[in-house]
From TrEMBL:
One of its GO terms (cellular component) is protein-DNA complex. GO terms for biological process: regulation of DNA-templated transcription. One of its GO terms (molecular function) is transcription cis-regulatory region binding. May play the central regulatory role in sporulation. It may be an element of the effector pathway responsible for the activation of sporulation genes in response to nutritional stress. Spo0A may act in concert with spo0H (a sigma factor) to control the expression of some genes that are critical to the sporulation process. The gene is phoP_1. Keywords: DNA-binding, Transcription, Transcription regulation. PANTHER family: ALKALINE PHOSPHATASE SYNTHESIS TRANSCRIPTIONAL REGULATORY PROTEIN PHOP, REGULATOR OF RPOS. This is Stage 0 sporulation protein A homolog. InterPro entries: CheY-like_superfamily (IPR011006), OmpR/PhoB-type_DNA-bd (IPR001867), Sig_transdc_resp-reg_receiver (IPR001789), WalR-like (IPR039420), WH-like_DNA-bd_sf (IPR036388).
Amino acid sequence: MGHILVVEDEENIRDLILMNLSMVGHTSVAAADGIEAIKSLRSAAFDLCLLDVMLPGTDGFTLLKNFQDANVPVIFLTAKGSLPDRVKGLNLGAEDYIVKPFETLELLARIDVVLRRNGKQKYVFYCKGVEVRFMERLVFKNKIPIELTAQEYALLEVLVQNRNLALTREQLLASAWGYDYIGETRTVDMHIQRLRKKLGWDDVIKTVYKFGYRLEEPIE
């Protein structure tokens, strides 16, 4: 997991991002403007910055150079979704550019991609005797290899990346099968049952009544 600086002047959005980062295992620090952001950058090491473009005082585009000098990758968060703005942000060297409003799952997925790309993501996940090695796409139960189908592994990866978050069947279909997948949501139920059986995770993959599923990471 990563240590992330969230630079966002809108309190509601900032608090929501911080809450979701915490739920999936990231640690984070908040800043409401450029001055606070620079102070935080100088006082701690970060794996990633979520940087709002439209900030009071110095804007995010101007602040970007400070993060580049500190070797901290940046994902821009902004309501400015025009093509020229997106191109400008990427050309300046940002890793990604996310337009508000955004879905939490999309934000977490893009964070994961950037952390992995920059070698700042944890590549192994442990839970109740199960070890998931993301780089090798291997899964072990009590050090014994577990054979998963490609679709079972894709579903497992989405659950792990969004652990402790309740996900609807539709969200799981979109993330693990792809938005172009056409099928009934009971397909998710079938694959969840297979994962539970293969991994011994009946008490880890929880059913959220009339909603979907949640991978609940036990507190060690």
